[in-house]
Amino acid sequence: MNAGLKALGRPLFRLDRKESYIGVLVDDLIRHGVDEPYRMFTSRSEYRLALRYDNADERLAPHGRRLGLTGDEEWERFNKRRARLAAARRILKEHRLNRSETQHQTLGQIAGQDLGNSITLAELALRPRMNAELLFDLLPADAKREVAISDFESALADHLYSGYLSSQENTLRRLNQHDTLNIPSGFSFRNVNSLSHEMIERLERARPSSFGQAREVPGLTPAALANLLVQLTIAQSPTQT
User: Fold this and answer.
1) Residues 6+ apart with CB under 8 A from 233
2) Domains, the chain, ranges and CATH?
3) CA-to-CA distance for 44 and 63, rounded, in angstroms?
4) Which of 71, 153, 178, 217 has a CA-to-CA distance to 144 between 20 and 30 Å?
5) Residue 143 and residue 131: Cα distance in Å, rounded?
6) Using CA atoms, how far apart are residues 6 and 25, in angstroms rounded to an integer?
7) Residue 238's pLDDT band (boundaries 50, 70, 90)?
8) SS3 221
9) What is the pLDDT of residues 85-113, one digit of tens each?
């Protein structure tokens, strides 16, 4: 593909780590290299909550269209689904159940909680024992004609993961801001909470002198880096000196 783009004088196509596991794999191999057989685990991606099979078209179809790989019929089908997803997200936020409705009382019993006088589907989704099928059954007939259950499930997944995704973005932003943080020569990686034996071995073998160097250690997961950063920050805080 890129050979053809280069021949046409067009910009080369690159998938970002945020967009696909292929992007993660290529980035890992180019930036870190390998000192053992490469294993593509989902844990290698710091964006794995967003790299789901049900949103692959949202992530990749626009690229396909821009590159001429997505035909008119397929593009029209994608845009219709995108419109249904937007409708499903709107319904989740706007559709309410009031205490006067029979369904409100029944769902309160299922959740084992008082649902208040009024509750949206988005709020209800966060209560215990709720699932996509149960919530979809609550939709009025016109809403069910507007969205399919698969679209509703995707919109619900986005909603349920939104808090984690926001936290993930904050963690990554924090990681990127501490590359100059020094790692003392006698620092014990074994004292870092929640580090697996594999992560400890990789760090002890590389012996990085800064957090930026630690981020370049092959095979180190985002979770391991976050735990390391917390421990380094604590170790170098004024109360620890």
Assistant:
1) 178, 181
2) 14-48 (no CATH), 178-240 (1.10.150.570)
3) 23
4) 71
5) 18
6) 22
7) low
8) coil
9) 999 999 999 999 999 999 999 999 999 99
Residue 114 neighbours by CB under 8 Å, 6+ apart: 108
R_g of the chain computed on alpha carbons:
23
Q: Which two tokens stand for residue 90?
A: 């709107």
* Beta carbons within 8 Å of 85's beta carbon, 6+ residues apart: 58, 147, 151, 154, 155
Dihedral, 209, 214, 215, 217 alpha carbons, nearest 10: 120
3-state secondary structure 121-172: HHHHCCCCCCCHHHHHCCCCHHHHHHCCHHHHHHHHHHHHHHHHHHHHHHHH
CA atoms within 13 A on the CB side of 134: 17
